[in-house]
Amino acid sequence: MVTIRDVAAEAGVSITTVSRALNESGRVGRATRERVLNAARRLGYEPNDLARSLHGKATGTIAVLVPDITNPFFPELVKGVQEVATAHQKLLLLCQTSEDSEIAVQELLHLRRKRVDGVVLVGGLAASEQLDAALAGLPVVAVDRDTTVDGSRVVRSDHRRGGRLATEHLIELGHEHIAHVRGPAHLSVAQDRHDGYREALEEAGLPYDASLVVEGGFLEEGGYDGLRALRRRRRPFTAVFCGNDLMAIGALRALEDVGLAVPDEVSVVGFDDIHLASYLRPGLTTVHQPIQTLGRRAAALLIGSAMNDEQPASEVLDVHIVRRQTTARHRRTEVR
Ligand code: RIB
């Protein structure tokens, strides 16, 4: 492998001069710099990122940690991060935490040993001294969900407003008995969407009925099982707001299995607007999150701060309803 020492010998200069010429740091005359660059090209010299990192220099690598790569939301988020990383000549490492704080700690310690320049982290991980230690001193931007690290910056959607919009949409269609399949209780995103649902009901003068709320874990099977559990409670409902699109997909399957027509008998709203939402039949009415923009903004915040660009501390991006075919006006027929 060609080393910086070989380039110095080829160019007839010192190793320090080669390092200054290649890093454009320190005073190096134009002619000398050209001589060094030509020698490096002739020898096919590749800067050693690890050697650079050992001297505390940037390695040109960032990482993104997401909970579940099988959920289409996260690959879309990573696509946005990748776009910005590539535009800044950064290599992107992808890690999956499986919503497990201990896994996240192991991955962060490994990334620190790799001298990554920074991390985009989908937060919501259980707080621990180990997680705080693994994040300490590491440039981090949280995306989608907050982290427990004091002062950390986060780029997320307005989850509470999204919950309100979903519920207001159903109320405007005449629904008064609206169920909610919520995400995991420990996640702030799920709590925020639930609180938006509750606020919209109360502002419309409709009672909040806890027996119409069930948890679905942000998973298809959770939406399916949640809908079946709601049916067993025998509380009538004509609409259901699901806290993400995967649970809405599970709920649609459950409604079909019990012979309830969507939207004629039950209206369904999701949250995320993943790419597949418009390809379902009927197409899913949902709350649109600017998923790739979330990724782009988080990466820009991370890389920009490393370049000392002025950046806002945190950003909350707006959401909106995308009306498709799973919602319709209530026809005054209660669920059987
Ligand atoms: O679908 C996965 C959910 O987890 C999304 O709603 C996203 O906001 C993330 O928090």
Task: Give structural notes.
- Residues 2-56 form the HTH lacI-type domain.
- InterPro entries: HTH_LacI, LacI/GalR-like_sensor, Lambda_DNA-bd_dom_sf, Peripla_BP_I.
- Pfam families: LacI (PF00356), Peripla_BP_3 (PF13377).
- One of its GO terms (molecular function) is DNA binding.
- Keywords: DNA-binding, Transcription, Transcription regulation.
- This protein is elongated.
- Helices cover 43% and strands 16% of the residues.
- With 336 residues, it is of the alpha/beta class.
- The N and C termini lie far apart (74 Å).
- It has helices at residues 4-11, 15-23, 30-43, 49-54, 73-87, 101-113, 129-135, 159-172, 188-203, 220-232, 245-257, 291-306, and strands at residues 61-66, 91-96, 118-121, 140-143, 153-157, 178-182, 213-215, 239-242, 267-272, 285-288, 315-317, 320-322.
- The chain is built from twelve helices and twelve strands.
- The longest helix is centred in the middle third of the chain and has 16 residues, at 188-203.
- The protein has three domains: 4-47, 434 Repressor (Amino-terminal Domain), CATH 1.10.260.40; 61-157 and 291-316, Rossmann fold (3-Layer(aba) Sandwich); 159-290, Rossmann fold (3-Layer(aba) Sandwich).
- Bound molecules: alpha-D-ribofuranose.
- Alpha-D-ribofuranose is lined by residues 71, 73, 144-145, 189, 218, 244, 246, 271-272.
